[in-house]
Fold these 2 entries.
Entry 1:
Amino acid sequence: MATIATGKVLHRVHGATVAARWYGRKDATWRWDDPEGKFGVLYLGKTLVGPFAETLLRTPGDRDVLWDQVARRRAANFTIMRPIRLAKVHGPGLGWFKTTAAGVSADFDPVDNPGAYVVPQQISAEIYKSTSLDGIQYRSRFDSDELCIALFDRADAAISLGAEGVPIGKDWTQKLLADRGYTLIEL
């Protein structure tokens, strides 16, 4: 189990035209979503790098990132109002769920790999159903140094929105991309 203390700040990347606080539950699109749609999940990171990588670096074979894609996104942050308790689904925590890093990190592709999220979604549903934990802590697939959080909707009162709709800086983006071998392209 991992705990994040009161007062810590978590980060999110969201679309420029939508609110940062969104617990998707309509179609189990993302990795830790409930396959039955009974609960929602808000995806966050301990730093802005994790959500940025999860949102904008999803095709590692393509080393170019269009500025237009970044400009359509915004940054948000949330302050933890009470300690949140999370299932660690990385490192030694993988053994508790009888899986591997590969088992919870497979690339989803509706054509070539449509079942890639079956394992993490089943783990998420089991944690939600059988514990009182607030969510899941996991490693970003696109920057494994980054810890991310899948926060269950039942823990919504544990976070307070600090800022949303903040443009992501071009200089910050260029540095982050350059450190990873990507190029920012402006058309």
Entry 2:
Amino acid sequence: MKKKPFKHMPKVLFGEYMLRTLKTKDYRDLFEYGKDPEVTKFLNWGPMVLSIEAKRSIKEIFYPRVKNGLPVGYAIIDINKNKMIGTVDFHSVISDQNTAEIGYVIHKDYWGKGIMTQAVKELIKLGFTYLNYDKIIIKHLSKNIGSQRVIEKSGFKYIKKEPYTLKKINSIIEDDMLIYEITKEDYHGSKQS
């Protein structure tokens, strides 16, 4: 079986934005939104304090994913500004079920513009057609309404909720984690209708 090219995924253009494999040089842009407490409020990391944290996360969290059978992750690029404005990625895999989980984050200046919804849809397409996953899952804390909108607009089906505790540097969030999925069959079926 041919090894999947996880290290260099295909570039994807949509409107004035592009998905391309995350690079170490993106750390400055990652730090720009990663230091924002509002952007990182519902994430299990951040806010970042030093730019070296962003560089370290690319090298120590994103790059090693290839060894675990996952793509490095996509940088979302504002083509006109040649700037990374967020990431969308498969951050974990359940290999015995051929299932991957999506995570994402985007700079606050780009909230509410439909960019992340389109980026997630493009990643779903790659997950089923290029990486040949059977199922993709995604999760969000119930208080994260923005994330919920992206997930619902991207074609996922709600499965269940579980109690969850998110421990941040200066706070603890007690909430429900809402879990969604989309299967390859559902994806291909919705493309025909």
